[in-house]
Specification:
By secondary structure, the chain is mostly helical. The chain contains 5 helices and no strands.
Length: about 150
């Protein structure tokens, strides 16, 4: 089965995409290389070296991301609905986005009965994971729907 998947071609195409993002030259920007190659290798190596496994917490992680995603979706839809009738000031938007972080950190701290620092670290990890996983899917869905409705 693995002979059908050419991993080197996937890596080569990924590098080609990173090269095409840099309009001034045909080189990969060092921050992109650091974010998409070096950082995941370092984090994966540390997790394997420490023997950490997500097996015990996988169900909780999926449930937390689902509940948090539903909370985000409901709140963003409410915000968009209110914004169609009245203009929302910038400070309200900033307060709105900070409330997600506060809510997530409080929920993680109470659920896992951990310190605020550890909950903040977990919340940051979950938020970034949610951002990198679901934001491209959301953008693709919006583009697809707008294309179909055009």
């Amino acid at each position: 089965m693995l002979d059908r998947i050419n991993i080197l071609k996937i890596i080569k195409d990924h590098l080609g995409t990173l090269r095409s993002l840099n309009q001034s030259s045909n080189r990969i920007y060092w921050k992109d290389f650091l974010l998409f190659f070096i950082f995941p290798v370092i984090v994966s190596t540390l997790l394997v070296w420490k023997g950490y496994s997500f097996k015990e917490q996988l169900g909780n992680l999926i449930a937390a991301i689902s509940i948090f995603g539903g909370f985000l979706f409901t709140t963003f839809c409410t915000r968009l609905l209110v914004n169609t009738f009245a203009s929302i000031p910038l400070w309200v938007d900033i307060l709105f986005f900070i409330s997600f972080i506060i809510y997530l950190v409080m929920a993680l701290s109470h659920f896992y009965e951990s310190s605020w620092k550890r909950a903040l670290l977990k919340g940051t990890f979950i938020s970034l994971s949610f951002l990198f996983l679901f934001l491209p899917l959301t953008i693709a869905g919006i583009v697809l729907v707008s294309f179909l409705l055009y």
